[in-house]
Design brief:
Mean pLDDT: 89
Low-confidence stretches: none
Strand order of the largest sheet: 1-2-3-4
Largest sheet: 4 strands, antiparallel
Oligomer: single chain
Length: 191
């Protein structure tokens, strides 16, 4: 295992905003998303800038509320820290709260590979075989900063690549059985 990560060094928030509820954060995200859409349609903002803003809003505005929410196989809560959430529901619910038009139940109940495919936006998903030290490591090292949906054999989550380091954000079925962010190299479900 590697030493504990200093998430602040990587500009990753792990605690919710003080004095701001999850509902207030969702409203903020909706307003920001509308502003980004208008700027993009006017041509004053690139698609890359919109993608970067999406990543930051999802990562640092919504996800901190979810960390520590218990995992159960049947978990499907719509609100962080209230009841439990399975891996597919974490992905579908958090993306729905970011404004993606999707049925969070239908998406979460698909196989993890199909869930990843449904979000590939027309691109053919990359399929890897093997574990740690495989072509997966090489692929992750070559990626630009961003978010990647990952459908594993029996698990789904989101990989964040930031400045050459990759993190796995998921509702994990292994101890501590909760929503967490960890380095992909330390994630037993990932490999």
């Amino acid at each position: 295992n590697t030493p504990p990560i200093d998430f602040e060094k990587w500009n990753i928030e792990t605690k919710p905003l003080k004095d701001t509820s999850y509902e207030q954060s969702k409203i903020f995200v909706e307003r920001k998303r509308d502003s980004l859409r208008r700027s993009y349609l006017r041509g004053s903002l690139s698609l890359q800038a919109v993608g970067n803003a999406f990543t930051e809003l999802w990562l640092n505005r919504l996800m901190p509320y979810w960390y520590g929410t218990p995992w159960t196989f049947e978990g499907h809560t719509d609100r962080p820290q209230q009841s439990s959430i399975a891996c597919g529901y974490l992905v579908s619910t958090s993306l729905k709260h970011m404004g993606l038009n999707l049925n969070r139940f239908r998406m979460a109940q698909q196989s993890s590979a199909n869930a990843a495919r449904s979000l590939a936006l027309g691109e053919k998903p990359k399929v890897f075989r093997g574990g740690k030290g495989s072509e997966t490591d090489d692929w992750l090292e070559m990626q630009k900063d961003g978010l990647f949906i990952v459908g594993l054999d029996n698990h789904v989550g989101i990989v964040l690549v930031r400045q050459g380091k990759s993190f796995f954000i998921h509702s994990t079925y292994v101890y501590p059985t909760e929503v967490q962010i960890e380095q992909t190299v330390d994630s037993s479900p990932f490999f």
